[in-house]
UniProtKB/TrEMBL annotation:
<dbReference type="Pfam" id="PF02481">
    <property type="entry name" value="DNA_processg_A"/>
</dbReference>
<feature type="domain" description="DprA winged helix">
    <location>
        <begin position="301"/>
        <end position="358"/>
    </location>
</feature>
<dbReference type="GO" id="GO:0009294">
    <property type="term" value="P:DNA-mediated transformation"/>
</dbReference>
<protein>
    <submittedName>
        <fullName>Putative DNA processing protein, DNA processing protein</fullName>
    </submittedName>
</protein>
<feature type="domain" description="Smf/DprA SLOG">
    <location>
        <begin position="80"/>
        <end position="290"/>
    </location>
</feature>
<dbReference type="InterPro" id="IPR036388">
    <property type="entry name" value="WH-like_DNA-bd_sf"/>
</dbReference>
<dbReference type="InterPro" id="IPR057666">
    <property type="entry name" value="DrpA_SLOG"/>
</dbReference>
<dbReference type="Pfam" id="PF17782">
    <property type="entry name" value="WHD_DprA"/>
</dbReference>
<dbReference type="InterPro" id="IPR041614">
    <property type="entry name" value="DprA_WH"/>
</dbReference>
<dbReference type="InterPro" id="IPR003488">
    <property type="entry name" value="DprA"/>
</dbReference>
<comment type="similarity">
    <text>Belongs to the DprA/Smf family.</text>
</comment>
Length: 366
């Protein structure tokens, strides 16, 4: 995608509250690009089934320019990722109607595909906080990225617990990327960014306030980024159930922590377990159910055994291609014995795959 086309995606996303991801995708398909859609006359949108409310938005295109939006994004050291880009989260791309684009502070990494949503009551009890402090560090240390909503209570404890062991954590906002909600958790957000161990993500355009209606929309992204959702503590009727419903709709696992029968904040988790959520009393319950242990160990091994300069040169030559050893030799300007030795070592490290017949392929991004 060109930078110019991306700017038109950003412009269209200013109307996100009115058109949403389904209509957004519809207009891209109908016109072939965001730019063509932006420049199309209003009457052409009637064939898309747009009603008076949506059609009235089109008049606003004349007064909307991308420069002030980009200035806000740059001011807050954010980036924009569209769902057309390879770095868009794989898990999120698989949900129904994924966000057309994400505004991101910090960095989303491939390892974040191995992630777990941790959610619960804003009015967390001491028990709930202790559970978060017991389970999350072990899950984060095992290699899972912890995803939550930066809310008070369990969300905040989950983010802190992941950071406490140098784990990765992602906060999903229900407002624009230029804000932190609630403001009282700004210190957590700052630690996530300054440590390089976290990212702050939202699908809402800059300057979007934290409307109550945004929370269920945001919650589907929390579960959508994750392989499963862990509910540590929740009363019946809690907003946490929006995240649970989204996880189930997305075909993701739901886990719940048993609590005291005397606590109203454990009534919701008890109900979830009764309806089939997997009960959790230790981190291993989740790791075993998600069956991510092998993936984590492979990833950690590859991170530990990083390529040296000569190996990096071989990987650069390979790129996304399948090349014969002779071609690698010709491009590397190294002697044949050295190239053969490097390829053997790199195969043992899991950096390349030998496809047979002297053909090699990089596996560093897998």
């Amino acid at each position: 995608m060109s930078n110019k086309e991306k700017e038109y995606w950003i412009l269209w996303n200013q109307f996100y509250a009115q058109i949403g991801p389904i209509r957004f995708e519809q207009l891209i398909k109908a016109f072939g690009s965001a730019e063509k859609a932006w420049k199309a006359p209003a009457e052409q949108f009637s064939r898309l089934g747009w009603g008076p409310n949506e059609l009235s938005l089109l008049k606003e295109r004349e007064n909307l320019t991308v420069e002030p939006i980009l200035e806000t994004i740059i001011k807050h050291k954010a980036t924009v990722i569209t769902r057309e880009e390879e770095i868009y989260p794989v898990n999120l791309l698989q949900i129904p109607a994924p966000p057309p684009l994400l505004y991101v502070r910090g960095e989303l990494l491939p390892q974040d595909n191995l992630s777990l949503a941790v959610v619960g009551s804003r009015r967390a009890t001491n028990y709930g906080k202790e559970v978060a402090r017991a389970l999350v560090p072990e899950l984060a240390s095992a290699g899972l990225t912890i995803v939550s909503g930066l809310a008070l209570g369990i969300d905040a404890e989950a983010h802190r617990a992941a950071l406490s062991v140098g784990g990765r954590t992602i906060a999903v906002l229900a407002c624009g990327i230029d804000q932190i909600y609630p403001p009282s958790n700004a210190s957590i957000a700052r630690e996530m960014l300054e440590s390089g161990k976290g990212a702050i993500v939202t699908e809402f355009p800059p300057e979007t306030p934290t409307y109550p209606a945004n929370f269920p929309i945001r919650n589907r992204v929390i579960s959508g980024l994750s392989l499963g959702t862990l509910v540590i503590e929740a009363a019946e009727g809690s907003g946490t159930f929006h995240t649970v419903a989204s996880a189930l709709d997305q075909g993701r696992d739901v886990f719940a922590v048993p609590g005291s029968i005397f606590s109203p904040y454990s009534a919701g988790t008890a109900k979830l377990i009764e309806k089939g959520a997997k009960p959790v009393t230790r981190a291993g319950d989740i790791l075993e159910e998600l069956q991510v242990g092998d993936q984590i160990q492979i990833r950690k091994a590859r991170e530990t055994i990083a390529p040296d300069p000569e190996e990096k040169k071989i990987l650069t030559i390979l790129g996304p291609n399948e090349l014969h050893v002779d071609e690698i030799f010709n491009q590397s300007e190294l002697d044949t014995a050295k190239v053969s030795s490097l390829l053997t070592t790199m195969e043992m490290k899991g950096l390349v795959r030998h496809l047979g017949g002297g053909i090699y392929q990089s596996s560093i991004s897998n």
